[in-house]
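Here we describe the complex-level prediction in full. Unlike the single-chain runs in Section 2.1, the two entities below were treated as one system.
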Amino acid sequence: MSTWELERTMAAEGLIPEEAPPLPFGSGGRPWFVSLVMGVAGWLASLFCLVAVFLLFDPNTPVGAGILGAIMLGLGFGLYAADRDDAFFGQLALALSLAGQLALMYAIGEATDSAVTVAAFAAVISGALVLWLPNHFAKGLSAFFACLAWAFVVRLGWWGDDLFGQRRLEVPFLPALTGWLIIWVPVGGLVHTLIRRETRWMATSARRVARPALTGLLLGLSVGTWASEPFAALPFTTPPTEIPENWLVLWPLLGALAALFAAGSAFRLRHRAMIGGAIGGALLHVVHFYYLLGVSLVVKSYIMLALGAMFLVGARSVGAGGGQGVTPGRERPGGAPAGGTFGRETP
Amino acid sequence: MDRRVFDALAEHHGLASGGVERMLELAGARPSRAELSHFAVRVLHLGGVLSVAAGVVFFEAANWSAFDVFGRFALVQAVLLLAVAVALWRPPPAAVGRYALLLAFIVTGALFALYGQTYQTGADVYELFLNWALLGLAFVVAAQWSVAWAAWVLVLNVALLLFCAARPDAGILWLAFGSWALSTSQLLLLPLGVNLFLWGLWIFAQRSRAAHLAPRWLVRFTLACAVGSGTLAALVVIVGNGDREGAVGLIAPLLVFTGLGLYTLRGRRDVFPLALIEGSLILLSTVWIGESLVQEGFGGFFLISAWLILTSTVSGHYLMRLVRRWGVHGSAT
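The structure predicted for the assembly as a whole is:
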């Protein structure tokens, strides 16, 4: 169904007036691959811009770096606000705002010498930018970074900021599980709440925040545990003694489950690209689980076998409870399964 | 229709919550309970099969030293035979048969790795992947499933990239190319050509009765492999020694990209190929500028940043103009 056809149907049902002007063509988002090209280019531009500014001004103190960061962030915000629709100003604003955030994080790090403080600052500023930045793509990126920063706050705050594994961690099962749940259950809960109340916020100006935030949160659930991985389990030097038991190794596997939850949530939104991304994230998390040290490979194999059995039993229960209402079948031309399993092709 | 279009409709027409609800119903934008259950069943099935397979792999890896040579081969071959037996019992297009044949294809690779590790034949790693792709082809064809084809394309590309990058003076492919004295960038034209050929096959399949084997995502994935190979070839020329590499590795991909662009503009069906080409050109031009300005200090970095902003803006603007003009859709961010 095209946008025009939908509007005619809505008019026929009295949802909108018959004479209402149609939605201008081209409203709505960019295809994901266009956003990817522009987003990656914007990111790289921000890094080069940051290096250029630091080479030019050579800030010797955290205060100097902080002032530069604040100026760049403010410029970026100003450019976004000044012209929301212009692509050039949008890209320039993206580069400046990202460079400004990185500079501020550098300044905080230099001033406090604390990775936890930097992560906490990043979480707060990213969360604020989700609310304040006028640009949809930048909001989504900020939501994603806020997830990662929050994960780092818990991970580094609880078990120290020895990121490169010189000190071997020994983390029991329950704290490891609790830590992961503290990070990702709020994110998952927020995703579920946003999807459940979608029609409410779509009818208000909150859609300008909620929609990109939802995308960023789904991306965070799909790949975020990578960023909160237990670094201590991957030392860059050979450990001098036997590797202690470290249940942080479970985090990638829990991350895979979070990615599957993200896939299900993306299906509720019929967001095909996100479904694919979430499934890819789940697979990569399993590979990550294999390589991390801290629990024997035999124990890992038992965990995977038990998980597989649970999934298959779960599939049987769900199927028996009503999952056969739509007939699975071969893919139709263009990739859409006959039963609409992974979202529908645009008619 | 993606969600942002619905947001735009809700804002444009000033819809209340009830109106938004009804709009989403009319557009079929929300899966029914049955569809959700069906999706959950498929994901749980796939997750269950892959988790069990991963568990078996982990267990084998953990106890590898406890098995003798015969035991190791017996274990891997038993899994392969079991997968084939399941596929014969429930042949494709049944889902069980497809999963079983995908597993059989994956285990074929494990079998070749085991063979190479056990007998130390002196074969190069690329030969392992190449043999995997060639001999696993039967399972992929039998599966009648685009996911299996995607796995096969991935394995084939790994084989080709290992061959082109590692430059081993041995093996099947070296017998064919060894006497030509080709540089690395020129060799990288091989994966470009192979992926283009596959892309052409998928395009042909889309217009035939085998269209279900070539969904849009598989066509895009193969094209991305082709453009990626061409970009790598051109990068080697830009970054490497120009006299040794020659210009062919740069000119040939650019000509291919031009042809692809013209074909896409003529077909007006999908903007994705143009996004790939523009992304590649942005990368190549930025690296070339970086190579030229590496000594220029902050000015060089500033120029690169400005170039990235300018080119991505122009690309985005052009691509969106085509999206609107052609009326094509993609999943939006």
